[in-house]
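seq:
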Amino acid sequence: MKLLVTGGAGYIGSVVTSQLLDAGHEVTVLDDLSTGHREAVPEGAEFVQARIHDSRDHVLGRGYEGVLHFAAKSLVGESVSSPELYWENNVAGTFSLLEALREAGVPRIIFSSTAATYGEPEASPITEQTPANPVNAYGASKLAVDHMLSSYSRAHGLAATSLRYFNVGGARGPFGEKHSPETHLIPNLLRVAAGSSDSCRIFGTDYDTTDGTALRDYLHVVDLGRAHLLALDTSEASTHRIVNLGTGNGFTVRQVLEACRTVTGHPIPAVEEDRRPGDPTSLVASNHRAQELLGWQPELGLEEIVADAWRFMQETGAA
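struct:
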């Protein structure tokens, strides 16, 4: 297929672009490089530096058969202090993209959604029937796009899939995490092992879990990418599918810390601090719908996630 990848210079976008190219697809990456990196765009992909707000100029007349939409702001804290950035970029920008797709007759879109749409659910594992109740503008902006996709599917025949990610980690060869600031647990732990930081912080040790620290579902970015390719192949006109992507198993912060210590051979000192407001005890996905609709299931575990992330950090100096 001839495909457009928005946000393809970012972490997940670059990994999925590399997988699409390896699968024989023709790919154009559209990214404004506000958070992405030009060197992260895989060789073989055409690159266009532009905002998604200007999608029309880069979609009409190109003959795209599908879009994978990763371009978004994604810092939870920033979305609380500056929600206007998230409505303007994630919602208004995606509206411009959808209008361009409608005018150009592009038939399918795969959307990078998030478990943040669920907010702080009381029950776990989380299914697609769990009520969406986001507690910040980031999650709310992604949920707003989900609603847009449902309406465009009904009215205009768009084949849409929203993939709601849980915690993503790992790397694929030269493509991995290079966020600034870095807010994810695994790369921050590995930064300590690499010597970029003296210690890591554990927020909350009084949760109702086996060791008192919060429980999260960690998915390898390679497994995540495979789900996108399967979603492309199984999408249906006039249908909007919402699908969780996770392993169905959780690991506590201490378990992740121990995995990082094992892989790196570094003690990775940890400082215990109070819980952060709004951090739920457990966020673990049910992936039954992904298995049913996409024929997908994860293949890589926590140690592979950590090992690939550590290899990427060492080889690229990403710490």
